[in-house]
Amino acid sequence: MSINYREVKGRIHSIESFGAVDGPGVRFIVFFQGCPLRCLFCHNPDSWSFTDGEEKTAGEMIDQIVSYRSFIQKGGVTLSGGEPMAQPEFCKAILTLCKQEGLHTAVDTSGGVPLSIAKDVIDTADMLLLDIKDYNDDDCVKLTGKSNNNALEILNYCEETNKRIWVRHVCVPEYTLVEEKLEKLAEFLSKFKCVEKVELIPFHQMGMYKWDFVDAEYQLKDVEVPSNNMMDKAKEIFTKHGLKL
Ligand code: SF4
Known about the structure:
The chain is of the alpha/beta class. The protein has one domain (5-168, 192-222): TIM Barrel (Alpha-Beta Barrel), CATH 3.20.20. Helices cover 33% and strands 21% of the residues. It has an eight-stranded mixed beta sheet with strand order 3-1-2-4-5-6-7-8. Helix 3 (88-100) links the parallel strand 4 (76-80) and strand 5 (105-109). The chain is globular, with a radius of gyration of 18 Å. Iron/sulfur cluster (SF4) binds next to loops.
């Protein structure tokens, strides 16, 4: 029985119709509701719950997306979150409808679900924006509440299947913005042909107020945002290993 992708339902947190930082070109961003991770630096804790947000069909989403076609024709559509791959059928349905409309697609993922669930989504998308939260697994558990195993398996699968990837890494002083750790990550990533570029994202405090609305304590109040100089040094490590930024 063939699937009517337009009827597949899911929950979304919000949309952004002219995104400029989540993939190539100007993009329509769909932020999915629900995330299995609990990153200490999360600036969208309101996207964690799988029951909040708004229920939509993929058909409703694609109708909204194509109404912006003239703005995103040279860019595309990015599914972000929350964790889009945690709603794999909805994710795949929107991606498939976008492909039918000739729109470029990207999935911005923390690699927070097993590869067995992510595979179908990866195969359907044109590219991934993959967060490697912390290359050291113990530190990753402390930082996000989960192992980095799923993200690394997804990265390996993308290498096998030649899926284009931009790796994203949030630089948090004392946690991830640590020279030795960045060296190890850069050396590791430099072996992957599928990694087209690395985006180093400076930690910021702009989402701190949102933690008042969830049942969790914000632990990074006293962490300073990285200076330009600190970010420049981090970038040098990646370029030294031949990675594009
Ligand atoms: S993966 Fe993203 S949405 Fe989920 S907790 Fe981490 S920063 Fe927040």
